[in-house]
Amino acid sequence: QSLPWLLVILKMAKALNRGAQKPVSISMGPPDLSDEESQANYMPDFLRCEACTGISERFATTLQKNIDKSKAVKSGKKELGEEKLLEIFEGICSDKEWNGYGIKEVNGKKRIVYPGSDAEDVPGIMQGGGPWPRRLSDMCHSYLGEYEEHELYTTYVQKKTKGLKKLLCSSVCRSSSKSSHKKKKPRKTEL
């Protein structure tokens, strides 16, 4: 079972040693997590921006898959219905949907890693499971509490992934980078 991992590590070391005058050593291990990172019920502040980016990309990917299922919706003649949008977003935010997400140390910095992230293919050991799916699910549900599903959908249709990321993450990413400028987002109205 561990033989394939050993082969991958040996191949990486061999590739890194090509052209090097001195042999290069590789050391890998799971990220060293603080108590907050490993046990808290919430997403640590310094990871919230990257987590939000992962959530917005997940929204975009799932919406596009559903748009592509209907020629009329894909062509812009129809929209996805309210019931379908509720089903889509509730499905996205369920805990089990976040199992492929986790944390990895990349160049000495802890990063949220998810399918399609720039840190996904960087060599290293990702720690998934544990509190990470629940934290991402909780953040995902908080966005559904803040924005109407139809608003998220129309933002994606009009502005694609970049628009969703701007809508959801601009204030989160500003506060993660210690900026004092916070912009209030429109609140979801209940029936």
UniProtKB/TrEMBL annotation:
Coiled coil: none annotated. One of its GO terms (biological process) is regulation of B cell proliferation. Pfam families: DUF3456. GO terms for cellular component: endoplasmic reticulum chaperone complex; extracellular region. Residues 49-172 form the DUF3456 domain. PANTHER family: MARGINAL ZONE B- AND B1-CELL-SPECIFIC PROTEIN (PTHR15881:SF2). This is Marginal zone B- and B1-cell-specific protein-like. It comes from Ciona intestinalis (Transparent sea squirt).
